[in-house]
């Protein structure tokens, strides 16, 4: 028996669960015709980790998010969520698609906030937020509505529940989109240049909301942004992409202060000079 000061060793199953990445890219390839966007891409994101992808436009960053959201199809390789294949698995030595039911179940663990808000214009703000929790997660209307009101309060839009998206500013629409993604209680939150379509004066309010989400939840985040101060503030790890490859990765203080690769130095020099 262990002494009072000793802790029992974790079981092999518990150790494996703790070490299983929430997201894993393994030998991922994505082509659009003859254009190879991603090639032999391997990386992992741990549970509760916030990873930011930086790099020039066209380097494959948004494609990565769209693959995790299954909005694009893999050309080759595998993506795993909690150790389970997201779109393809290896069976009898062959790479084959997983079932639609399996994929749909994994998708419910993933939320995404897009550049262009993607709200339903014919629905009110409240209806936009409760639609998926009711029809995808099977929650009661009462539960979904209560959760939606709580989220609207968190994003500072308690008085806009019955407004339509077209009557809101861009910053307000993006805050609704954040609330809608969080209403699904996602294990993984994907953020795709969420401030790029906003007027400069409202960028800060949206980023502050996301900072609070990062500080107050353990949701795993995979982020694409050109807002370097935001990336520095919220990230556990920053990955520099160029030409569909990871050029280098590391903690934000290392990447932003002492990058090793000349491509990272050139990119950050240009981006930070323009801010």
TrEMBL record:
Keywords of this entry: Amino-acid transport, ATP-binding, Cell membrane, Membrane, Nucleotide-binding, Transport
- What NCBIfam families does the annotation carry? ectoine_ehuA
Q: Which Gene3D superfamilies match?
A: P-loop containing nucleotide triphosphate hydrolases (3.40.50.300)
Residue ranges occupied by any ABC transporter domain in the UniProt entry: 23-268
Q: Which Pfam families match?
A: ABC_tran (PF00005)
Question: SUPFAM superfamilies this protein is in?
Answer: P-loop containing nucleoside triphosphate hydrolases
Protein name (database record): Ectoine/hydroxyectoine ABC transporter ATP-binding protein EhuA
């Amino acid at each position: 028996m262990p002494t009072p000061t000793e802790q029992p060793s974790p079981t092999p199953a518990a150790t494996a669960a703790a070490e299983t990445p929430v997201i894993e890219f393994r030998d991922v390839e994505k082509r659009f015709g003859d254009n190879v966007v991603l090639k032999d891409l391997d990386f992992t994101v741990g549970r509760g980790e916030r990873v930011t992808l930086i790099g020039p436009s066209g380097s494959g960053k948004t494609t990565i998010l769209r693959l995790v959201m299954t909005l694009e199809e893999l050309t080759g390789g595998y993506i795993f969520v909690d150790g389970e294949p997201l779109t393809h698995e290896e069976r009898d030595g062959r790479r084959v698609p997983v079932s639609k039911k399996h994929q749909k179940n994994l998708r419910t663990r993933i939320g995404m906030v897009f550049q262009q808000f993607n709200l339903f214009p014919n629905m009110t703000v409240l209806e936009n937020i409760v639609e998926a929790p009711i029809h995808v997660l099977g929650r009661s209307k009462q539960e979904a509505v209560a959760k939606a009101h709580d989220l609207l309060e968190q994003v500072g839009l308690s008085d806009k529940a019955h407004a339509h998206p077209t009557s809101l500013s861009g910053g307000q629409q993006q805050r609704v989109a954040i609330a809608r993604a969080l209403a699904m209680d996602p294990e993984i939150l994907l953020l795709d240049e969420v401030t790029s379509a906003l007027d400069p004066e409202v960028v800060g309010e949206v980023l502050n909301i996301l900072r609070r989400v990062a500080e107050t939840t353990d949701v795993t985040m995979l982020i694409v942004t050109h807002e370097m101060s935001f990336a520095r503030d919220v990230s556990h790890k920053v990955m520099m992409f160029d030409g569909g490859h990871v050029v280098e990765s590391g903690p934000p203080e290392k990447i932003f202060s002492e990058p090793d690769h000349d491509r990272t130095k050139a990119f950050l020099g240009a981006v930070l000079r323009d801010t």
